Amino acid sequence: MYGVPMAEAQQDRLQLGGMALRNGLMLHGPTHWSAAIRLEDGQIKVASGRHRRLSGRGAVPILRGATRLAATMLTLPQMRRALPEARLAFETPTIVLTVLAGAALSGGARRARLSPGTVEALSQVLALLPALATLRSGAVARYHGAEHKTIAAYEGSATAVDAPKEHERCGSHLVVPMMATSLVGNLIASRTRDPRRAQATRAGTSVAAAGIAVEVFGWMTRHRAHPIARALRVPGTLLQQRLGTEEPTADELAVAAAALTALLRVERDGART
Fold first, then answer.
1. Which of 37, 99, 193, 258 is deepest in the core (most CB within 10 A)?
2. What angle do CA 163, 224, 67 make, to 5 degrees?
3. For residue 28, what is the enclosing H or E element?
4. Helix (H, G, I), strand (E, B), or coil: what is residue 45?
5. 71-94 pLDDT per residue, tens
6. Residue 224's CB: how many other CB atoms inside 10 A?
7. pLDDT tens-digit profile of 135-164?
């Protein structure tokens, strides 16, 4: 499996994604998910299930992207019911305080006498702080690296140990298009004098930003050699290198391998039914 060239391997293999947890990781396939965690007694516990389908996934592109993100998030309650010991990356008091502090600072910035562009740019940066704080957690960053290395090994680029901890399909590549879309939409909302219309514009902007980011991400994946795609990957790659991932331990790679084995099994069994 590990000796197959990546371009050739990806033609025959499923396209996988994932999410790091504080004590393990979750993997996503085309129709199923799996998760594996390390219990306090050292054992590995694994669970899997089928993705929930949402109507509209094949509809208008921007709506399609937002629906895909929503469908992915809906697997979290399923996973928590199957693995109650799992700990999500943002389940810490530090992250809660970071979110509250960012919201307070954003509100203060909007009340200050600053230009709309400055206020909205600052708000976008503050909104990113909780995610950065989450990624800086050592266990989350290592399991994030384990997720990338295990998927890369499955795709045939190297063994999991030798594979890079950064991956071109990481969600970090969503950050720039999402922030850019949100900035433009919120600038429009800030010029709207009617508070209700401004609030509706901001809500719509959040959905549109998610949808556009997913569409851009999909285009980058399909055209990975295109100069624009390579340029768009630079911020996300730097984020992975500097903040988002760390080299996992052998025990953490074993957890990732258990999740991958479970996912491939349920995807294979699901294809037969």
1. 37
2. 95
3. strand 24-28
4. strand
5. 778 889 999 999 999 998 877 656
6. 13
7. 666 789 999 999 999 999 999 867 999 999
How many CB atoms lie under 10 A from the CB of residue 22?
19
Phi then psi dihedrals of residue 35, to 5 deg: -145, 145
Strand bridging mode 32-38 / 44-50: antiparallel
Query: Which amino acid, one-letter code, is at 18?
Result: G
- Specify the length of the chain in residues: 273
**Contact yes or no for 170/25 (Cβ under 8 A):** no
Q: How far apart are CA 273 and CA 269, in angstroms?
A: 7
Per DSSP, 242 falls in state I
Alpha helices in the chain, H assignment, sequence order: 6-12, 61-73, 75-82, 93-111, 116-135, 138-155, 175-190, 195-222, 227-239, 250-272
- Kind and range of the H or E run holding 19: strand 17-20
